Description:
Number of strands: 7
Strand content: under 5%
Order of helices and strands: HEHHHHHHHHHHHHHHEEHHHEHEHEHHE
Structural class: mainly alpha
Oligomer: single chain
Helix content: 55-70%
Distance between the termini: 64 Å
Radius of gyration: 25 Å
Shape: globular
Strand order of the largest sheet: 6-5-7
Amino acid sequence: MKEQRSLTLFILISLLLFGLYYMPVRIMGSELSFIPGDHGGARLILYQLEHGYQYLIGNVSSYWNANFFFPAKSAMAYSESSLGTILIYSLFRWMSFDDHTSFQLWIITMFGLNYLISFVAFKKIFQNSFVSIFIAYIFAFGLYNLGQLNHLQLLPRFFIPLTLMFFYSFLKKGKLVYLSYACIALFLQFLCGRSLGIITLYGLLLLSVLCPIFFRNDIKNAIGSFSFKKVYLLHFALIISSLVALFYLLAPYQAVLDGFAERDFEQIKNSIPRLRSYFFSPPTSTLWGKALFSHSAFKFDQWWVHFLYPGILPFLCFLSLIPLGIKLGFKNLGTRFYFFMTLMLVGVLFTLRIGDLSLYQLIFSIPGFSYIGSINRFININLIFLLLLAAEVLILYLKNFSKAQSVILGLCVLAVVDNTFKVNWEIKRFEKSKSIEEIEYISKKITETYVPIYEAIAFQFPNKEIKNAEIAFHHMATMLACQRVGLKCVNGFSERYPAHFMSFYRKTDKQALNFWLKKNEASLEGVQLIPYYW
């Protein structure tokens, strides 16, 4: 037993270190020269984390009222807030790392937590370390992560498997302690990102519907043994406190969203995964890039957001069930297997597009789900469902074949090979030094030009044709520079924008600035317009 624990710990840590090196560190470079993502979305997360750090040390008086989109209020609520991981980022800042390096270390830490915490959740369900290590590696370091480098706000997803595990345990065992833990984990996942929290709710909804169907007897026994004398008030307090805290967390988001029209289903339709999306590999995949990239690239709208291929191993695990089913009889595979299979199929089916039809329209109509703009993000929960099914197949093999344990150890090695990729120009990343140089240049220009009588500044970009993506990058750089010098700015970049702001966003001249300020009952007298040349 002691030897097996030592082996488990060795494999767990070895794959953690290898996964961290192979996925985030290789993308960043041996000297951490690159940052995954682009100059817009990635640096928005950097801004949010740095803003949270400045709030913690007392340099910023309000968390939600950040110093961009001046004079609009609650600027932080127009996109994901990254609130739940600010302390981790701040730890690196307290260790005297600069903001960009702290951001890189934050990214590495998120990958590590996805691996370790998902392992704990899977281990609780399957009671097998090697199976749990295998699927945790795919969840944390799988190829599908390459398709999400432009959405680093989706990295802190480690509370999703934890929430599902606790809620699954509650439904099967009826112990209130599991429900209280599930509520806490759900709140923490919302704290890490609103989209991820909503995606977790989707998983809880499916569990609520399917568990009573498959585990009727377990639930009846749990209800029958339930006694109010055994219920601790602490658990009720934790549940209520978590829900109240979640309500207050979402209030700022809802306040700014009240000014928007509801998203139309047609706006998000192209981001709904097709069946081929789950077999669509990034071109940088060593094994699958050539075979699984060309068959879907350029074949449909927004194809570049559909790299959802999880590697071949989860599918092979499922297919390997056929000989086992023939040997044992498919009816003897157990209730849990059919539950996980149904969970996976239903989870994918309701987030799938077939032609112009999609059942996601039913999910979209549920209050709150229209907030998610890209439905490809549901890979973060559908992959968990697929991995649960793959793990259950492996557990069935362990129960029926004595030598299956060594095969599972081999699968851990194959998982590494299956998810190998090349780091080249097709990997979405940017140079850290150039980002720092740009921000320092703008900061210097501000300090040389700013007149203290003004409450805020606005940078005017050159009067020439600029690509939309480049406009976003320049607004983002201006935000970071103003954050560095502690000034408010009109310029801003976010997932959503305040009403009337887009006129200034596209054309940062005096006329557009005056229009934006008047709509917010402010005047040009309080804002200094500074020409921005690069």
